[in-house]
Amino acid sequence: MEVKRPVIDGFEVTSYNLDIGYWRKFAPLHQYIVKVFANDVDECQQIDLSADDLRRIATALRDGGLPDNEDCGGFFFGNPEFWDEDRAEGEKHAQVFDSAAEWVESNSWNSVTYQASW
Q1: Do 42 and 34 meet the contact criterion of CB atoms below 8 Å apart?
Q2: d(Cα 100, Cα 77) in Å, to the nearest integer?
């Protein structure tokens, strides 16, 4: 079976990177993802997330399941005032993760990777 791949600038496309979300200095979200899905190893590594993982993150955002502000911090992470603002928009953030989960399930080639960058 031959697979027809799109062509960009004369080259076949073998993968795409899409930005599904961006959270600047939302330490509680970052800490949650690292703790739950990367065995608490925080090296700015790529963390693969399944549809179930994405829904679990959405639930944590909706239900107050992120770490307390006191458990977050460090020079790169901003301050608790920002985090409280992000927490207040938990439903909006959760919808991004729910949409990503649906997208992952819509095609066996789709995948999501989380990575912090400083």
Answers
A1: yes
A2: 24
Tens digits of residue pLDDT in 73-86: 766 777 888 889 99
Separation between Cα atoms, residue 20 and residue 5, nearest integer Å: 22
DSSP 54-67: HHHHHHHHHHT-SP
Amino acid found at 79: N
pTM metric for this prediction: 0.87
Around 28, how many Cα atoms within 13 Å sit in the side-chain half-sphere? 22
The residue type at 78: G
Q: Distances from the Cα of 44 to the Cαs of 35, 38, 116, in angstroms? A: 13, 10, 5
Instruction: Please provide the size of the chain in residues.
Output: 118
